Amino acid sequence: MNRARHLSITAAWLAGILSFAAWGLSDDGFDERAKGSGSPAVVSARFTPSILRFDRTTPFTLTAKIGNGVADRVVLTQENGSETAMRDDGTQGDAVAGDGVYTVQLPAALAVAGLQADDVYRKFIGYIDAYVGTSRASRYNTFASIWGAEMGVVNVVTASATAHYSNYVLNIVDPTSFAAGPGDFQSVVSKLYQVLPDQFDFVDVVFDGIHVGNRFHFAVRNDVSGLGMAISNNGGQYGSASRLKGISAFPVNNIFDTVDPGHSHEIGHQWINFLKQAQLATGKPHWPYSTLASGTMGFSIPGSLAGGEYGCVLTPVAAGLQAQKRTQAKVFKDLDLYLMGLLPANQVATHYVFKDQVAAASTSCMGTLPYSLFNAISINDIIASDGPRSPAYPNTQKDFKVAVLVVSDAKLSPEAMAHYHWFAKRAEATELVATHLGFTKESSAPWYLQTGQRSTLSARLRDGAGAGTYVTVFEFFAPSLNHYFRTANAEEAAWLSANPSLGWNPTGKNFKAYARHDHPSTAKPVCRFYGSVSPGPNSHFFTADASECAWLKQIQAQTPAGQPRWNYEEIAFAIDVPANGSCPASAPVPIYRVYNDRAAQNDSNHRYATDTTVYQQMIGQAWKGEGVVMCAPS
To answer: What would the mean pLDDT of 518-528 be, rounded to a whole number?
Structure first.
């Protein structure tokens, strides 16, 4: 079957290949090659282990397969310019001499030392440089993928010897497909449906390594007219009887992030751009240089199908189009949203396409550009050429599901599962999120914001009772204070238990909850607050009520630090909440809250009781009963 692949140049792919600085194209690249064919270059690479722990102390291995010619020398060049030889002589960790696979063993600190929040668990290692004689023939930028403590360890279900899944990622062990890289998607994706039901609109196929190439998307099924593409249904070839729309491939594991604009871009290719309208068709499968090109879908780089990032926002004004560099996170344009079924036709503005696409590449992004440089395209022009979208808004799908499938040659480690789980779950973000792709670090809009809050994207594979990682919420009592304290942090609980001189004694009245990073959709995040030793209150407070949490944060922001207030610390765990005072069957254990009513003495304390007997005892001691506030799994 002929599959149209829609490629996207990301910030990670442009160095040494193209430079359109006037339009804000990044020059951060993974792959830089000498001109001409036959230049030896990296065709695949991998780290062992594939995902490194943030606290790793032992060396790790980097291997790179060189193709497209023979290299005389391959080195890893670090950011400071120092070189470390990569070997293909069967020694010092290299498996087979002369096979074109070069190996180097590296200290853990190179990957994990100095890791910053804006690295987003991707750390630059260096450049793999291949030389012919004394000339560098190619350069490939390498980034290690890191497991961080906040990712935790997720609950993994073993479906078979070759299939394992968490709430957000399915690992398929397929050495043949892993070695081959992107290609036989029918075989790989069909294995998903041997484990999970046909309930996903999209599948992300992520390779647990590096196969040099860009991400891409192709449609499996299309039931929408008015897009410029034919109605089709090839879902059965991939194991989907009715729902699968398209597949996105990520040949390089460290460019996979469901909150990154590139991920939304690939899904956008399910509908964009196949239009036959003459001026817009010149940009297929993206947009031509135009008012559309500064959005998520970008523009098509002349001479290729690859997508470029067009950083110039063109705004219609009386004298022409005002050109300004984009400063906000990318979002879908109104025509994108119309084609996606998220906006009615009458809300699509007129768009303007440069008449001279070659000149557009070097036109300065400042000042006002006269309308004479552009062709104006209205929604009526598009409908006249391609017909109206059908089904039309509002009778269209708004909520989508994506399954993340990671292909590996061996079962992923717990850290690797948690790492991919974390990046998959980010699809459901509703606020701007820090992203790091290649050398580009920015604040990115997730799908929900990219669509103007018109659509949701869920990456959840399973749900319901038990769909998550259980944690124990321990209780301690300090007789000297007559205070109770809860913690879901096992290390904190162990420390308190091991240091009785601190005055906190375990009561044994513990309950079960879910880890904050891995829980069913019904479970709510529990906010943890602390006052202060002085001016107080010297106590902790927990709430699963989002509005109560937000209210306390607001009070904190409005109250000077020297006055008593509750200070937000973290999301401590996740748990279900009651409906009309009753707990659901999936979380049948009621957790009661009582309050000592000592705010006037600046001595507030709450206890979270696990049964009615304790609850009534506390009320008998003049504590105020506040009823059921949480519901724990049994």
So the answer is: 96
